[in-house]
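Q: Could you fold this chain for me?
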Amino acid sequence: MRGADVVIAVTTGADALAAGAESLPHLAPGTLYADLSTAAPEDKRRLADLLRPAGAEFVDGAIMAPIPLRGLATPILAAGDHADRFAAFATAHGMNVTPIGGAPGDAAARKLLRSVLVKGLSALVIESQRAADAAGLGEWFWHHLVETVTDADERFVVRLLRGAAQHGTRRVHEMEAATRMLASLGVPHTMTLATTTTLAATERTGPPPLPGTDRPTAG
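A: Sure. Below is the predicted structure, expressed as structure tokens.
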């Protein structure tokens, strides 16, 4: 990254600080460093402080939807003093970045609030479908689940299960960050902690299979 005007860091949240530390010796004053990891707000602020001695311009970025669905057009929020600069650069290259101003951690907070909802839904789908399979009602419950969660699109429910299988480690780290954020806010986080536990267990055992042998969960 020596000589780069813009650095976009897309690591797991657990690796964001290490990536920033390894980047530090190579960043010139004025280099725009946009961290798009799903790290806790406090880690984004620590990262901004870490890079400040190099004169780098830090941006807290948050990817707000699964990349495979929209590719380069996936919505991204950008926070911090240099969010506008990153948004202008990213838009010129076909990305969909919305600057929200504020301070480092503000975009991450929005992403993690979304994570509490979406990953929590994923954990509930896993637990309830597993219980239905054990009760011999897997096929019935699957159709009931799809009808309850979404009126028209079964693909959303399938993504909840397959996403847990394909992105287990990253999602566990993400929910650990969300748990720390809720704890720091003094908000009870029983369901968020339970989601983390369920996703971690699912990483080891795999999610329940989808009804029908032609639709493996991990496919």
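A (continued): The beta strands are 6-9, 32-35, 57-63, 75-79, 96-101.
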